[in-house]
Fold:
Amino acid sequence: MNLDDFEYNFIDEIYHYAGLWERKSTCGIKIVEKPNTTIVISTDLYKENPGGSITEFVAELAMLICDSYKVDISNLTFINHIPEVKSSLEFYAEAFYRVSFDVQDGKLSNPDWHKMTREEIKAMVDL
Amino acid sequence: MKFHLIYPKWKKLAGQTHFNLPPHGPVVMAAALPDYVDVQFTDENVDDIIFDDTVDLVGISVMLTAQIKHAWEIADEYRRRGKTVIFGGIASSLHARETKAHADSVFLGEVEGRMEQVFEDFSKGELKPIYNFMMKHPDIELIGPAKRSILNREKYYHKGIQMVDLFHASRGCRFNCYPCCVPFLGGKSFRPRPMDKVLEELETIDNNRLFIVDNSLAQDKEWEKDLFRNMIPMKKKWVSHTIQDDPEVLDLAAQAGAWYVYQAVFDTSDYIKERIKKYHDHGIMVEGTILLGMDNQTEDDIKRLVDFLHEVNLDLAEFTVLTPFLHTKSYDDLFREKRIFDTDWSNYNAGQVVFQPKHMSPERLQELYQYAWDSFYKDESQEQKMFKLMMSVVEKEMRDKTYRPRKEELAGISFGKRIKR
Structure:
């Protein structure tokens, strides 16, 4: 598998960060500015990511991305994209989750995942 | 310096034969200790822990998630006695955030070349709460022979028969399997040990029967062939995970002493049928590992899979239910969907359903798990099939004159305990 296997509609660039236990990690990101919110789509890269998953580090990652791209965390819409892998196994099917957080003192905590469809995401970002 | 290294016990699954193999993590860790450390080892699966107030430092090595809660209890008791406790091993790394509350220190990652620093810090009273070597792999050349002299050897005999010794020829894994935590712990690339180091260690093991515990041997065909060619003269007999699906590799594996392999059976395809047949054609027996409760399995799929196992003449089968261990894709997927209802880690033994399956109730999956065991071993018990497996290795050993008769003085003993008649 390489990056060509991924759906590029949802990846504009590869984001490098120090993940859980400071492991070198990467994810795909796409940032879309909307009048009332900034949508950040973060895509798991599986084997192309030497580190951990987005899910295990999602609040910290969202804050890192907001810091890197000057996104107001109180105005953030964070999407966790689990891309399809070209496999017949169902558990590698594509999935999207909107992740909501508690926002307190400029920090995100208590992530909660809400499943969305690809169509809903495309409508959200006008793809 | 007196160091008490402990490997905590865990509750074995009901209905399965209980074998205690000499653990691998502690002997690998012990090999990395500085020379001045006097290590005393307790495998609680075969020996009781004697809380020793004369030790300087206590180490707890934890492999399985099902061990971790009891490991915390042991640490709590030693700390109540004023002793300093450091954790290491697979499950300590998976559960590091929780383990910190029960430890003076948690070591994350691989130990080679790092223990001098840890013990020096301890001597100075400067032990760090976390030694974070995750993904900072040591030079693979540093991995020497494991220190098996710490084992209480006679405790790893059942009715006079010595259990296999565990051994590893590589670390890491290039596969990214759904239920596996190796990508988190050992990285996503294959790291073979230098062949001379592998052979040096094999020479030190006073046991003709081994379990090569590498995650998969099918990572690099040329390395695999090289390994097997070098093992042929040693006449060891061994068990391993998957071997490359290649006639030349299988032939070399058989010559090198492949006894039986663990092969995942995940569907009823001709591919799986052929795979098992090829092993058998080379005289290698097969223990199928069958994972139940995946999202693509209905009740009918599970029943069909169990029927299929009889058709392909598996020599043994081991059934497990999907268990979402921390830092696996299965955990992430089930966690996001709020399908994990049990986070008592003692229940994470791969025999107890801790999540909501997609196509059935948890109770129904639990029943099907039991059905799978009962159905597969209906006509021939697990003990009978294991006896056949034993006879196959004895025959191989007789042929190449490496057979060692059982220890008669231990014939009435099982893992250190007298067998009740």
Observations:
- Residues 3-125 of chain A form one domain.
- DSSP finds two helices and six strands in chain A.
- Helices of chain A lie at 58-68, 118-125.
